[in-house]
Amino acid sequence: MQSKIMYIENKSKGHHGLAWIGFAEFSKSGQTVYFDGKAFDLQHIGIITKESSAVFK
Questions:
Q1: What's the confidence (pLDDT) of residue 56?
Q2: Antiparallel, parallel or unpaired: β 47-49 and 55-56
Q3: How far apart are CA 51 and CA 35, in angstroms?
Q4: Mean pLDDT in residue range 7-19
Q5: Which of 57, 49, 48, 46 is nearest to 10 (CA)?
Q6: Distances from the Cα of 36 to the Cαs of 15, 23, 25, 33, in angstroms?
Q7: Within a 13 Å sphere around the CA of 26, how many CA atoms are in the beta-carbon half?
């Protein structure tokens, strides 16, 4: 898997969500991002978690 440093912010409750900077890994297709033990689907507006449908940007 390809990995790179990313800034991830939880926007599910507005503009003042928690934020992280860390290594994220991408699937071979590039459609899924893995961060902090969670899988995220890439969407046009942001990233949607598979577990909770929370929106991260």
A1: 55
A2: antiparallel
A3: 13
A4: 80
A5: 57
A6: 21, 9, 10, 10
A7: 11
Radius of gyration of the chain (CA): 11
- The count of residues in the chain is 57
Strand partners, 25: 3, 34
Q: What is the dihedral of CA 9, 57, 52, 30, to 10 degrees?
A: -120
Q: Are 11 and 17 in contact (CB under 8 A)?
A: yes
- CA gap 51, 38 in Å, rounded: 8
- pLDDT tens for 21-49 read 999 898 888 788 888 888 877 764 455 55
Token pair for 53: 């449908």
